[in-house]
Amino acid sequence: MRFLRFSKDGEVGLAVGDGKSFHGFTASQEGYPGDLTPALLTKKDVSDLGEALSAGEQIDLSAIDFLPPITGASKMICVGLNYADHSKETGFKVPDHPTVFPRFASSLIGHEAPILKPRQSDQLDYEGEVAVVLGKGGRYISPEDALSHVLGYALFNDASIRDFQLRTPQWTIGKNFDGTGAFGPYLVTADELPAGASGLSIQTRLNGVVVQDANTRDLVFSVAALISDLSQTLRLEVGDVIITGTPAGVGAGRTPPLWMKDGDVCEIEVEGIGLLRNVIANEDASQGNAAAEGKHLVEHR
């Protein structure tokens, strides 16, 4: 199943489908089960949620705005340097333990929304990644049991402002500019994919040119290993997101560097999950504030 969060006429909606056809409800309609994370908490099984949504009307994908698949996660944890070739191209040693940093909800956008190039920098870089969404929480999770905690997978563009990322030893500030965390286009349940989403081709294209081309089997730390390792420190919760890292080919690793600019189109495609597409747009202060306020109203309605 694929769960789609969307907005239509100022209302949040939730739908289920196969990637081409979706059925569901908006918040004002009878039958709306609530937003995805709360709905998952009240349903005994994800199939129950899918069955309830399938009774809704067909969603016209051309008439909606795609929203990030999950909102209000207690934790969004990004993993850095999780492909050996990416560590090499950026001059870092392959880590002995997962390198992690947070992504904040204020940075998130959906499929087809613009990634904002900030006024402060021209060093806007792409990072195609697979995101893991948890359907069951826990602490001290064993590697053998870890994949039973996965609800599904989505795509993520961890667009990074490189000069801000590297001006301090901690990367967080360069990873959390508003409008830079593209997340979507929807959530694909784990049963549709190989265990741990391993063995899937992952590709990033900038203006139609392939800039990253790899396979998820090459993760340094697998999805199961990441869940188990993180749970030794953090109590993981339903709806938490782990963003698993990017392969080689980023703009910062090229000579000369390849930065995204206004009007560029960045696409991330992963076998079995889908395609995440975003146009790059220069940040405009007044437009950005208005968009942020409108998003806040939609997300909390």
From TrEMBL:
<dbReference type="InterPro" id="IPR036663">
    <property type="entry name" value="Fumarylacetoacetase_C_sf"/>
</dbReference>
<feature type="domain" description="Fumarylacetoacetase-like C-terminal">
    <location>
        <begin position="75"/>
        <end position="280"/>
    </location>
</feature>
<dbReference type="GO" id="GO:0019752">
    <property type="term" value="P:carboxylic acid metabolic process"/>
</dbReference>
<keyword id="KW-0479">Metal-binding</keyword>
<protein>
    <recommendedName>
        <fullName>Fumarylacetoacetase-like C-terminal domain-containing protein</fullName>
    </recommendedName>
</protein>
<dbReference type="GO" id="GO:0046872">
    <property type="term" value="F:metal ion binding"/>
</dbReference>
<dbReference type="InterPro" id="IPR051121">
    <property type="entry name" value="FAH"/>
</dbReference>
<dbReference type="GO" id="GO:0016853">
    <property type="term" value="F:isomerase activity"/>
</dbReference>
<keyword id="KW-0614">Plasmid</keyword>
<comment type="similarity">
    <text>Belongs to the FAH family.</text>
</comment>
<dbReference type="InterPro" id="IPR011234">
    <property type="entry name" value="Fumarylacetoacetase-like_C"/>
</dbReference>
<dbReference type="Pfam" id="PF01557">
    <property type="entry name" value="FAA_hydrolase"/>
</dbReference>
